[in-house]
Amino acid sequence: MHPIPLLPLALSACLASVAAHAADAVHTFDIAPGPLADTLIDIGHASGRQVLFIPAEVEGRQAPAVRGDLLPIEAVRRSLQGSGLSVMQTASGAIGVQQAQGTGLTLDATSVNANAGLVAVESDGYLAGASSAGTKTRTALVKVPQSISVVTRAELDDRKSDNLSDALKYTPGFGSQPSSFSRTADDYTLRGFNVGAGTGGILRDGMKLQSNPYDGSVEAYGLERVEVLKGAASVLYGQLSPGGLINTVSKRPTATPLHEIGVEVGNHDRRQYTFDLGGPLDEQGQFSYRLTGLWRDSATQIDHVDDDRRYIAPAFTWRPDDDTALTLLASHQETYTGFSPPMSYGLSSYSHTPGYKIERDQFVGEPGYDHFNNRMDTLGYLFEHRLNEHLSVNHSLRYFQANTDWNYLIPQAVVGSQLLRRYSEREERSTGWTTDSNLDFTFNRGRWQHELLLGVDYYHKTYDSHRHISATLAQLAPPLNLANPVPTGVGVNTAAESGSDLHSRQVGVYLQDQITFDDKWVLLLAGRQDWANSVTTTFATDARATRNDKKATGRVGLVYLADNGLAPYLSYSQSFQPASVSNPAFGNAFAPLEGEQYEAGLRYQPAGRDLMLSAAVYVLDQKNALSLDTLTNTYVQYGKTRSKGLELEAKGNLTDNLELTAGYAYTDSHVLQDQSANNVGKRIEGVPYHSASLWASYRLAALGLERLRIGGGARYTGTTRTTPSAYDGKIPAYTLIDALISYDVDDHWQVQAKAQNLFNKQYLFCNTTCRYGDERSLIGSVTYRW
What we know:
single chain, 786 residues, mainly beta, Phage tail protein beta-alpha-beta fold, 22-stranded antiparallel β-barrel, five-stranded mixed sheet, 43 strands, 6% helix, disordered N terminus
């Protein structure tokens, strides 16, 4: 094809501003369906890349939505779906649009200046090309020398995740309890270590969220995505367990109108109503909003235990210019349910010991007494300002509070047919202030490019817990006759106050440099210094225990970006977590629990494909772990735990109609040192050697049924162990099957049906204690979008 002069033929083209990033950088797009010409211009504006096209060839053509973290050339390719046009890259690096049979295109053009938006939005499909969780900067996943898994909004919608645990169950290396527990608490494991709210491992928009495990669980419908950073990661976030962290990203205001309402019905008398509204508030686009809400009334597989929730989250963005954005985020959440009481393995129907057992669907509490009522509120903001093309400032702040009132009867033992039960009554209030401020500076020195991040963060939390939990036989509640389980009522709880009041603060200063050489090598260097102090007051004695810690942590990693899409990496990282118990007899001198991880991995992103394959091997140690000395009934710091393993993950859009996520994890987690010799070599409770998952969603366009989509998944959990003194055998492995069918009636209406645990597989989850697994869940939904 010969070069085509612009002026004589009255042709035009679009050229975006000079890019502030490398030509192959991932950018975030949020472009609604519309005329193809407008979409191509918007892609150029958002990415800073030249996008060249002949107006006559695109006139009258429509483009689908282009949303997500994509390379600019991939964004253009998506916009051309069904148009008969193809995309190519010119020798100068511009992106050209041509007829599919064409062999080349050369156009002159004039430039239009624009800057990319500052607020992150969600990927259009299952694959997220970038994440901020690993570096606190918007970085392509292939450039991060540590394992990161991202669950996008598209995947959350497909699987209709009811809670954060559901959202992550197809993530390799992730472990959680059944939903009967997860609807009350975010308490999970990564790579064999607990990363729940009690460890500070649940984040919201890059900042710590809950103050303790029972502050309430995160509402999945209010999330744009979930980012899972695996392994030691204190260098950017401070106090964490070695397992890593889970960053939940709030739904944000949108630049284009968004309107969605939905109704769900299901078994156990489930009724759920949702709405998600957003868009600009003015013609100039300076002001935009988002309003997300949910109301659910539902019973559960256990009588007298509901699963009710109310949630609303308003958000507002002010963008006075292309370089500045201020986003206000708030949420209010109420949960009315029941706590799933723990039981020993011997009380479960899986135990072969003689005597009565607690059955799978049996309610062992008392109607009107057992309840878990929680209210969670958040208010904060995110501020970003680009001072020039090299320097930007980021500042975020949030206030959090939670109030929880919960009573339940704890199964203790069976004598004859009588189930002995302990009282547990708790009233808790938590608060949290968190803020993070940093400067992001980019500069080039010949073949070297640097992105330097300098920041300081602060976290202050309080946890006021009043507890009355039976400790002696005289304090037990009336027993339940398992041979004839009828309510008995409850007596007077005479248990003494065993609660406490905690106030803790953490300040951290961090420095990170992402160094790129020849666009092939990426070296990540980071260091941090933390100062932490806490004061715990025990209500029963008014005793005060004070602890002060300081710790330096670091991380170093190296990535090589090959031309064929391969990206091998090596990394070393550290973590620290202040000891969580007081020990006055030893002066509260416990050192922080320390973690370190060595990891080697490989990512592969084929050119022109929305697909990423990842593999990682790691060795992850935690030392200074606490062990209970049974002779003195005090804690000693003598423990060491090691987890080593392999993780594989595939995620992406294999074709325009097929989306997939698959994972496998081998996790070998053992105790290496402990005060009790019997514990040395013991497997960590609840962590399987093998786990695997596969989910696929397919649109039947090849059969002429492009509006019909089917999905299915399988989740395998291998054998695990529980407390050896309770049962020294293996907890059986199990596989759960999920399914989905969805039909787009038109451009506005969608109907879906979803099943979790389709074949109603019975299983038991155990770590130190046990709970029965979730029964089959069937949900039908209708969604209207406009």
